[in-house]
TrEMBL record:
Belongs to the BetVI family. Keywords: Alkaloid metabolism. InterPro entries: Bet_v_I/MLP, Plant_def-hormone_signal, START-like_dom_sf. This is Bet v I/Major latex protein domain-containing protein. It comes from Phaseolus vulgaris. PANTHER family: BET V I_MAJOR LATEX PROTEIN DOMAIN-CONTAINING PROTEIN, OS08G0374000 PROTEIN-RELATED. GO terms for molecular function: abscisic acid binding; protein phosphatase inhibitor activity; signaling receptor activity.
Amino acid sequence: MLGQLEHELELHVPASEAWDLFGTLRLGQFVAKELPQLFDNVELIEGDGGVGTVLKLTFASGVAGPSGYKEKFTKVDNEKRIKETEVVEGGYLELGFTLFRVRLEVIEKGEESSIIKSSIEYEVKEEHASNASFVSVQSLATIAELAKNFLNKNKPSKEAT
């Protein structure tokens, strides 16, 4: 069984500024700091933020489901501003999924505006098809909203440039 979910949010910062957060390892640090109710830790296992980078995400105690998972960066395109990660250990794989991919794309909308498009693509074995109901873009929507507020607060003022 295949599935895909998407979420989009307009950011009031240039695409280059949004990509400086979403396209780098800063996003993992940001998530760990801003969402302690969801994640206890986001740990760099290997890599420098490029393709092949592996992160270990540990959920906070009390979060339903697996205690965490490892994800691998499978695509990082700085020109098109696209990053894809796949769960390679734990998490959804323990629930019968054979693929769980998150794609983040920063789309330039204007000089001072961009869109963060988040999507989840998954494949789950037929005998575990009911577990597809666990897939949600809510955490990606929450991360996008927190990032929007963070980027707006930390936007360089035009007078300073």
